[in-house]
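FW: tagging you since you asked about this chain on Friday. Here's the raw sequence from the shared folder, copied in full. Didn't touch anything.
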Amino acid sequence: MKFGKTLLLTASVIILGFNTSCETGGQSGGGTPGGAEKPADDLIGPGFLKTDYEPLVKWLDERFEIDYKHMTVALIFDQVPLNDIFYETSDLPTDAPAFSFASAAISRRDLLKKIAQHWKLKMTFSNDQSGTPTAVKVQG
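HL: got it, structure written out here
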């Protein structure tokens, strides 16, 4: 009887150890120089600008290398890789601090979230009558 409990306990410890050591972030090699792990708040994921429209999901989650320097809110949405879709903007801040950011591999979704946080913008989707997203609505 003791042998069975010991075996069960050992198996549980091995399984728990295996599960906690598996990478779940979806990125290999970490996100910072030297292979260090990215902070949890850098992994925004699909909760921001959530949609079930598969072509848009693919577009939002595609990763790019970017290096933005001194971007204004008036220019940011015309930059690669964000300029592929339509934005409906209103009440954007004027004389807001410039946005500078670089990343070796960031998704459009994560980049848009960082932009929204930087300028305190609200971003949602505008949908047509069938519910298909037609634009990203950006409000200051």
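FW: The longest helix spans residues 2-21.
HL: agreed, and Helices lie at 2-21, 54-61, 108-119.
FW: great, closing this out.
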